[in-house]
Amino acid sequence: LAKTTQPISMDSYEGQEVNITCSHNNIATNDYITWYQQFPSQGPRFIIQGYKTKVTNEVASLFIPADRKSSTLSLPRVSLSDTAVYYCLGGGYNQGGKLIFGQGTELSVKP
Amino acid sequence: DTAVSQTPKYLVTQMGNDKSIKCEQNLGHDTMYWYKQDSKKFLKIMFSYNNKELIINETVPNRFSPKSPDKAHLNLHINSLELGDSAVYFCASTNRVSGNTIYFGEGSWLTVV
Q1: Which residue of A4, A31, A93, A98 to mutate against B (max B Cβ within 10 Å)?
Q2: A92/B4 touch (CB, cutoff 8 Å), yes or no
Q3: What contacts B74, CB < 8 A, 6 or more positions away?
């Protein structure tokens, strides 16, 4: 199973770009890499998903190197409302449905 | 309409009681989960059902018993509640075709006193 490792916490200021890296050394060949965001008192919600290279949506970008052993979530120009916990997800449905979350990165955005 | 809904949102109960948390998803997904999140924010998978069949049981005390009457519902019953059961319990669902995209409920805050 793909165990993930990511920094426990990060601090940033409004308007900065934030990059959070997750390592998933034993991710399966056909598994996607997915990131979730969780605000206090809410359930995690999907941000972005990718398989390799780069994926971009209206919220974030996801960079995945060729070896797929890590991925970087990039949040452009963060605001106070981006303060949340960000989870990198390794594993997938192909591994018997066991979707394992890492410990998450607590991002604090300051004014 | 809420995609994954769970009730109750808050539950305060005494040690030794038995309680249930209910979950329903209207996304047509074939797989549902229960996750437990403790005070350290760690999301730990507890159970997973696929089309009403238990496929994952992650070394959870047998005081916890999930029940899936149909593939849109997954309830969690907890017997003889202990202080350490205090946590936030999240129901979630996904589908084979959606890859890793899991849809979570809003959580049920359980406090055992």
Answers
A1: A93
A2: no
A3: B23, B32, B33, B34, B47, B49, B66, B67, B68, B91
List Cα–Cα distances, B45 to A84, B51, B59, in angstroms: 20, 18, 10
CB contact B106 to A (< 8 Å):
yes
pLDDT tens-digit readout, B67-108: 999 989 999 999 999 999 999 999 999 886 666 688 999 999
Q: Does the beta-carbon distance from B96 to A93 stay under 8 Å? A: yes
Classified as helix, coil or strand, A13 is strand
Q: What is the pLDDT of residue B70?
A: 92
Tokens of A72: 């970087």
Q: How many residues does chain B have?
A: 113
Interface of B with A in 74-103 (CB under 8 A): 90, 92, 94, 96, 99-103
- Residue tagged 């406090």 (tokens): B111
A93 to chain B nearest CA, in Å? 6
Put simply, whether B14 touches A (Cβ < 8 Å) is no
Cβ atoms of A93 and B39 within 8 Å: the answer is no
Q: How many CB atoms lie within 10 A of CB A58?
A: 5
DSSP for chain B, written as a single string: --SEEEE-SEEEE-TT--EEEEEEE-S--SEEEEEEE-TT--EEEEEEEETTEEEEE-S--TTEEEEEEETTEEEEEE-S--GGG-EEEEEEEE-GGGTT--EE---EEEEE-
